[in-house]
Amino acid sequence: MSDRNGFDRAAVRPPIFMPAYLPPQALAGVRTRRIMAVLLDLVLVSILSFALWLALAVLTLGLSLLILPPLFPFVAFFYNGLTISGWRMATPGMQAMDLEMRLIDGQRTPFLNAAAHAVLFYVSWMFPPVFLVSLLNDNKRCLHDILAGVIVTRRPIW
Fold it and tell me: What DSSP assignment string belongs to 20-36?
C-alpha cells in the first residue's frame, strides 16, 4: 500500500523475525538467569493461584470447589501477559534477574505475544528436549521465543 507520495511503506519495514544487532553483553548469562527467573515466577504464580482458589472457596462457601477448573493455567496466562506487556517488560522473576522481553525488532511486547509466549512455554514443559534449541541458537532463544517472535535480553544499564 502506498502513501500519498507514492512510497511503499511495507517495502521499507524490516522483516518481522530478523534479529537486530545485539551487543554480546545483552545476552551474557541469559540462560542461567532465565532458569532462576522461571523458578521465582512459578512460586509467585502458585501463591497467586492458591490465594485466588481460597478466596473463591470462602466467598462461595465452598460451592465453587465443585465447578472450579484448575486456576494455575489462567493465572499464569494473565500473569505473564500483563507483566511482560507492562512498562517494565518483565515478570517479577525476570526483573529480579535483570532480564526483559521485547519483540525481535526491539519494540515492546504486546499482550497477545506475551500471553502466547506463556502458553507455548508451558506446553514446552511437556517436551523437555525442545529447550535444547537455545543451545543451538546464536541469540539464546528457545523454540517458544522464536514462535512468539520475542527475545529475552539483559536489562540495559542507563
Answer: PP--GGGSTTHHHHHHH
